[in-house]
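Quick check before the chapter quiz. The format below is the same one you will see on the exam, so make sure you can read both the input and the output lines.
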Amino acid sequence: MGSLFRSEDMTLCQLFLQSEAAYACVSELGELGLVQFRDLNPDVNAFQRKFVNEVRRCDEMERKLRFLEKEIKKDGIPMLDTGDNPDAPQPREMIDLEATFEKLESEMNDVNANSEALKKNFLELTELKHILRKTQTFFDEAEHHHIQAIHEPLGTDDALGLLGEEIGRGATQAHKLGFVAGVILRERIPAFERMLWRVCRGNVFLKQAEIDTPLEDPVTGDKVDKTVFIIFFQGEQLKSRVKKICEGFRATLYPCPETQAERREMAIGVMTRIEDLNTVLGQTQDHRHRLLVAAAKNIKVWFIKVRKIKAIYHMLNMFNLDVTQKCLIAECWCPVGDLDRIQQALQRGNERSGSSVPSILNRMSSRQEPPTFHRLNKFTVVFQNIVDAYGVASYREVNPAPWTIISFPFLFAIMFGDTGHGLIMFLFALFLVLKEKQLAAKMAGSEIMGMIFGGRYIILMMGAFSMYTGLIYNDTFSKSIKIFDSAWRPGLNEYNSSAMDLSNYRINPAYATNGPYPLGLDPIWAMSINKITITNSLKMKISVIFGVAHMLFGLSLSLLNHMHNKKPLNIYFEFIPQLIFLCAIFGYLILLIFVKWLKFDHTQTGQAPNLLIGLIGMFLFQYESPCKPRTCWYTGQQGFQTFLVLVAVLCIPCMLVIKPYLLRKQNIQGKPHEYRLLNGETTDAPEVIHHEDEELIGSIEDDVEEKPFDFGEIVINQTIHTIEYCLGCISHTASYLRLWALSLAHAQLSEVLWGMVMNVALSINVSWLAVIMIVVCFGFWACCSIVILVIMEGMSAFLHALRLHWVEFQSKFYKGEGYQFVPFSFDTMLAEYGLED
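Here is the expected output.
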């Protein structure tokens, strides 16, 4: 099981790196991912550190890459991901990268500026084309009304007729009508029209026409709907007002000739220019596309290189410089078993940099608690995350994760037990596991789906265990399956081989059977109205058995912690009394359950004792008379149970008093306090390994204050711990009854859903109607089963199983007061950015 059972042995090391080799050595350590650096400059501002300029250069390169990435995504160009993971470039290569990114950004800015200018010009020409086309229609209508007004003078009160008359007289009169033409956003037309009417007091005439095709905004690239308008007025004052209103509504005005010939000539010129612009725009877009395609081939690799460079300089900023300014000093936590690999990485870094002075790695002694490090894979990491969500294991503390791999899905399955629903969950998780490489990138974009995908292995385990418990419960979509012949035999006076209806039959357990059913519950119980009686009794007892066994196992793991920490007082005056207290009460209850199952059979119906009443009577010392053996059903039971209660009561002062007394006695006798070092030994002062670094190492020892002996605090802590354990044994055992309650709720909800939906369709006698109803009801039943019984009930059972592990199980041995080992690793860093291989 390796380091999954207990944290790896960790040590604090000191690194001496030559300045010219520091970059390459840190790069190799980042590729290795086994070193966690300590910040030796915690009081130094980030802007005052040695390599702040290099970090800023990396930030600037990242900004340029993000700009290129945005432009690539904007054009929908796929970014090539070859899966390459290049090494961190040498510092001298930063100049080449900066020059490349600067050139690309400059070219893209020039192309974007030219493209925007061309698109703006194209938009203006397009709008002018529509203005000339629409205004020609306006003038044609006005001419038509002018001719109509000549032949029908009585109809000249029409506005267009008057406008036509004015246009007709415009060649001969000096005070002819003026007009302006332009385009405006379509949604601004109503407000624009009201403003013209109010400001000009109705002395202008507005004519508008919508542009059929949306136009592209040259800045944002969005499609916008616009409208062509022409405003007729008389006088310079109205002209000034109209132009100011147009400016306020951001309408674009264009020159429009007065005569038809001039308008036609201008339209021809506009069309020619639009065709030329289309050619130039196409060439510009082609050039932009080529630039982005070339950048898309390398942008992933560029991101990896830049972020590796930036990470290296961030680490170098945590180092100290010696007095000669030629050597960098670092401190780091690393696994003891990987020191040789770390030395080899440092050697490779020296060779890459060409340094002739080797890097030095010294182990140091420290009273600081090292970080916790467990080696995980993609299967075990999800169970470790469940444990770490409660608290990271203290250094070298027993890790609950190995046991959680089995106990968590099993306790979940006891609550969820249904073969059909478990099969759905299992197949869903199996699909995620088999397609994990294809789905990894897609699921990472969604927080919820990413969480489900990350827990695919635990869902797979929960589905598999639920299928097993469903077989034990003989429950598949609320229906029993007859795998073997039923072992039940009815009474001879009630048996009718020709017709026998068990739908309202209460099975009498006094009848003989053909022996036990080979696997799980006999399917005959599903046909009986007293099914819930037997299943309730069975599931409740199973919940108590597994609950007490789970707590006993957790308590046994605390013995391993005490033995590893070499604390005999905790073994003799905590673990042993706790074990006796739990076994004397609830261990005895489990023993009674098994004895009751073995002793009483169907011939002794009504004579079996009630265990709950018996347990209450055990604590109250109340027993019935021998003629009514409901609480006393074996010889010497009263005396033995009285002995167990007294032993359990005596364990409380043993846990409460003896350990604080002995600790106080040791303190009075002047025995040194125990300090646990990296190797688990106890000593007065840590060993100094390298005498030439005594001053530095001494400062490391002084940052952990020695806590003075406080007898009052020890008594209070021991009292709280004792009361919490004694009351917790009772409340935690009752808490495991949720296994029974949720299993019952899941089974009953599944049965009700089947009865209210599928039974309705199956009870129809008309064949064609029955087929339709079965299809409709089956779809509704399937959706409700997945949403309610699989997803919602599954989430409920998951949370309850989580609580049973965090509170009832881990509280027996797990403190979770450590902190995680977070090594400097390029793989971890790139995974956070979504650039992992």
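If your answer matched, good. The first strand starts at residue 10 and ends at 18.
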